[in-house]
Amino acid sequence: MIAGAMIESSGRYRLRTWLRRNLPSIVSARIPKGPKDCGNHEWYRQDADHDACYHCVTGRRRRGPVGTPSPRIAERL
Ligand SMILES: [Zn+2]
């Protein structure tokens, strides 16, 4: 993804995320995730039981059993 597209996407801390992904690790290790809610979490599997947001430290959730819909999807059911 190019920097322009990352910066234009909604949510805070997208530039930080782009820099962490694209700079050498010795530099990117000094750029932490954002400390506040980014406003538009994008999830990845952090460990066996939790998902975390790429952009902020507040974005962390416990994953339910396999086949359990996410809270956002469950609201619509
Ligand atoms: Zn987030």
Keywords:
4 helices; 77 residues; binds zinc ion; alpha+beta; elongated
Description:
The protein has 77 residues and is an alpha+beta fold. A hairpin with a 6-residue loop joins β2 and β3. The mean pLDDT is 86. The protein is 32% helix and 13% strand. It has one domain. It has a three-stranded antiparallel beta sheet with strand order 1-2-3, with no helix packed on it. It contains four helices and three strands. Bound molecules: zinc ion. Zinc ion binds next to loops.
Q: Please state the average pLDDT score.
A: 86
Spatial strand arrangement across the major sheet: 1-2-3
Rg over CA atoms: 14 Å
> Helical region count?
4
Oligomer: single chain
Major sheet description: 3 strands, antiparallel
**Form type:** elongated
Count of distinct strands: 3
- Counting structural domains, the number is 1
Uncertain residue ranges: none
- H/E series: HHHEEEH
Query: For the terminal residues, how far apart are their CA atoms?
Result: 33 Å
Share of β-strand residues = 5-15%
Structural class assignment: alpha+beta
Which molecules are bound besides the chains?
zinc ion
Helix content: 25-40%
Short description:
The protein has helices at residues 3-8, 14-22, 25-28, 71-76; strands at 43-45, 50-53, 60-62. The protein is an alpha+beta fold.
Layout of helices and strands, plus pairs?
Blueprint: H1 3-8, H2 14-22, H3 25-28, E1 43-45, E2 50-53, E3 60-62, H4 71-76
Antiparallel strand pairs: 1-2, 2-3
The protein binds zinc ion.
